[in-house]
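Holo prediction. Input below; ligand is pyridoxal-5'-phosphate.
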Amino acid sequence: MTQPSPNLTLSHLVEQRRAAGEPLVNLTFGEARLPVLPELAQQLAAGAHRASYGPVAGAEDARGAVAGYFERRGLPTDPADIVLAPGSKPLLMALNLAADGDVLLPRPAWNTYAPQVRYAGREPLAVPVPDVCGGVPDPGALRGAIRRARAAGHTPRLLVLTLPDNPTGTFAPPDLVRELAAVAEAEDLLIVSDEIYRDVLHDPAAPFLSPAEIVPERTVVTTGLSKSLGIGGWRVGAARFPAGPRGRAVRDGVVAAASEIWSTLAGPLQQVAAYAFAEPESVRTRMAAAARLHGAVARAVHARATAAGAHCRPPTAGFYVYPDFEPLRAPLARHGITGSASLAAHLLDHGGVAVLAGHLLGDDPAALRFKAATSLLYGDTEQQLSALRAEDPTALPHIAGQLARIEEAFTRLTKGPGPHRNRRSS
Ligand SMILES: Cc1ncc(COP(=O)(O)O)c(C=O)c1O
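Structure of the complex:
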């Protein structure tokens, strides 16, 4: 727990090596690498005068805009039930501090959930995801895990769902969400539905169901602007709490933690939030273009993984793929690749491609799985703009070149050391 987040650490190391001239392809970090929308920069500048400490939960205009954002997604919301924060990450931490009991997580899951649970003095209880998608525990496995956890003296009370999911780039179909909501009801769990990728569906018409639509009284939804608008460094997150006494108690606990940790979202960012969550035309157009780009590039990396022999759920949201090289276990073992750590190390050393090994996301260390974050492939600011506009971004030379490197690294996995090592030593 004293280690920094592995994705941040690894991405930093890879960027240092790239700066030193190594031709590495970086697939370690889930940053949406897109130029800042000019209208957002204008709002940030216009909000500079908002220099006083604001209300802990967020300014009225920002909370109102977030409430409207949820209403447009089928969730009638009182602005009093909204809390803004510098990113959704601190909100998730505050939820761990405010709610009691142990925390059920999908396995694999975003690498921050489990350390946050431990920082709060609780136990993370990881439950495998189903074949169809990531981000949610398999309902049957969830029921079994709750039974066993209670028998072992744990008190599972929180269920974290990632809809859509990092690391698999997929989202649970509505029927599965309904089944999980029923388990939460039967077992009296509070659901934390992390919907930070909600606006990065590759097909905007795909049916998306939030558990807050089914069990509103027991679902907290978190979201933010980091992924949909690519402004992670600005740190804008929001949470929607259930109406009613139970939701109000959790909200008050989060606001109390916030008041002692971050006080309030920075004033200029309240102005950005008020603008962005109201979703004017400029924001809607950018979010749609970004989702198209993320989908095209994620599908291209998925195609290269499956062509190399991996199993991989087709990505439907976000900018991730999560291949499983199990079908190649025997040939990979001949090259000393027997689990996620050796698989990731081999791809880096021999293929020049940096990925995040599955065990760093709570997955079985013996499994041959990793996360590839595909949004770092868009290049510099000018290249990102052309990628956003392109009919087929995967055909742009800077993206096509990196896809070719990925293809070579994946297909060479079973063929021993490739040219990357030679390039480094020459
Ligand atoms: C699943 C998930 N939740 C939450 C976050 C945190 O986002 P932020 O703190 O920038 O709102 C991330 C960022 O990587 C994420 O992937």
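Confidence is low (pLDDT under 50) at residues 422-426. That is the main takeaway for now.
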